[in-house]
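Page header: ASSEMBLY MODEL / two components / 792 residues total.
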Amino acid sequence: MQFATRLDNVETSAIRELFKLLGKPGIISFAGGFPDSAMFDVEGLREASQKALAEEPGGALQYGATEGYEPLRAQLAAFERSKGVADMEPNQLIVTTGSQQALDLIGKTMISPGDKVIVEGPTFLATIQCFRLYGADIQSAPIDAQGVQVDRLEQLIVEHRPKFVYLIPTFGNPSGALLSLERRRRILELAVKYQVLVVEDDPYGDLYFGEAPPPSLLALASEVPGSREWIAHCGSMSKVLSPGLRVGWLVAQPELLAKATMCKQFSDAHTSTFAQATAAQYLKSGRMPATLRNVRQKYAERSHGMAEALKRELGEAIEFTEPKGGLFFWARLSGRGGKPTHAGEFARRAIEQGVAFVPGAPFFAKDPDLATLRLSFATADVDKIREGVGRLGRAL
Amino acid sequence: MQFATRLDNVETSAIRELFKLLGKPGIISFAGGFPDSAMFDVEGLREASQKALAEEPGGALQYGATEGYEPLRAQLAAFERSKGVADMEPNQLIVTTGSQQALDLIGKTMISPGDKVIVEGPTFLATIQCFRLYGADIQSAPIDAQGVQVDRLEQLIVEHRPKFVYLIPTFGNPSGALLSLERRRRILELAVKYQVLVVEDDPYGDLYFGEAPPPSLLALASEVPGSREWIAHCGSMSKVLSPGLRVGWLVAQPELLAKATMCKQFSDAHTSTFAQATAAQYLKSGRMPATLRNVRQKYAERSHGMAEALKRELGEAIEFTEPKGGLFFWARLSGRGGKPTHAGEFARRAIEQGVAFVPGAPFFAKDPDLATLRLSFATADVDKIREGVGRLGRAL
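Prediction written out in full:
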């Protein structure tokens, strides 16, 4: 059977191969990218789903508008307003089947084969593959602990004239990096100066451990004249409430939103109204603030636990900046003390010791740094994290 | 903003424009393509969703496998086996976000820009648009009340060497036509002879009014050696249980299924596990046979009511074959007695009389028949159907 030529641009991920080894009994996994099921507010979601079916069974079970279930759009607009997005109205967003679909719709709507797209190096693996399926030629802008390096980004924009720039500014996956306020402003200025769309993927912004992070690019756009129309913002309920609902959203200027809606109509018609009505009832119930407090506190404990254990067990053989939120440590093998610098090799030895993580190389669209790795602290408690990091130390 | 060139291939549907007029108070609509909300088994779905959350909250709320929630794949395989599909195993299908997504994944996996695809004329509008977004050059094979005309289909296959053939063999949308058993066998033989993929879209096959229809192409493939690998089958819970769950499935040979799964990974990661776990519990509960009996009986009454009313009120000005299942009448204005033959004009006059339907022209990928129209009997009861058809008579 002859498949579409677009499939030639993607390959089965190296990470998936690694995941097959995770079935080994007793393994401690820092490899996942998912939240801890034990933190899901099952009772709150049970009540919300019951209310959805009791109050408006037709709305929850019938076909719905491609743009999304109106009560949910209203709740999500209010949620964004509560995070500082000025004048956010329900018709400025559409509900998507997870934020993965928002990325897919942006790809479908914007990318012609051969178009340039700039992403962070490293960035979310599924985004790279998603955009490549639409024929994107992906360029990579370097990052540091303050997020993407804006001078390099500007050079790349001038050089490549990309269709858009894709960023995870807040607690990035895999970088854990937090884009500084000053860099956020400069990126909005670049968007206006070069008339280039900036796609802000923000699934982790609510998962901060201390102070709240700087405002999202979307929120900050009101301070940089002309920038709002150049920002597309992808939100998600997956990391804070439940990935299984598959409820995300896309905020964009009207013309782009209309095109994305048309593409969505032919992608899945609409997101599950049952899931949407459940999410709407949940947000309406007022339980979200307590849920957010709970996940922030638990993930903060785990993150601190991992930072301490890494320093104690691996010492100067590993370099990292402790994240201020999100789910991930991004680290680099320094090679000091004659220790290994190849994270793929290290991952194999770690599995033998009963602990798993993901090497960093696949997260780079170009020029992978083979010494990097991603560690998730999301799904193990602090004791398990200490035990797992101890095994990492033995593997190194 | 400059969008992707693929958007040049599609346009906002004429039907959508018509739908804007449906808000008029007191209008009776035969225009929709959706089932009647009043038939949804809300209590059964409530229990199923509760069980899903009680028995396996992690499975229902966490990220899940792209291929689908295993208990649902097992239930769907059993459902297909109960309809005569030999040796159907769970790993031969993936769960999709409605069958619309199955079509989207087939488009993404199979169609390179410029590839030929053959569909029925008329066929499901969203399929035409979905495939065109991937750059398909769509050819149209004529139908009659026995479904697609196989001799013409074979000529078109020889002439165009299509990437695949897309059919709705059982109670097609908009045609209501039922492909005969003999034609089904011949199509399977054509698939083998020309090594061409045949995509069978089957959302209506369970909605029969009298005898069960002939087996699906998928089921019949076991009788035509070598044909099973050339059949992709799209199933759906939308018309029989609830569209709002967005639970469909795709059956295909292993290589195609693996490619479609990869594409799905970057489209929406997976279908809502909450919706999937609810559907799995529903199928497990044993309520489905009674639900099917109920919808078959009610839609049969409505279909008979519409047939009688059309004969009485419109007489020889309209031609149609009474459907044996599904949700639609496909009709043609004969022009006899000096009556109009332009269904678009007629639709506008009907709206003035307080009744709506969809003109047939947009359902043709090529050479539209302007005298055709689609009438859905799904959402009005028999009294409303009689009243609505009376208004049609006055409009004509």
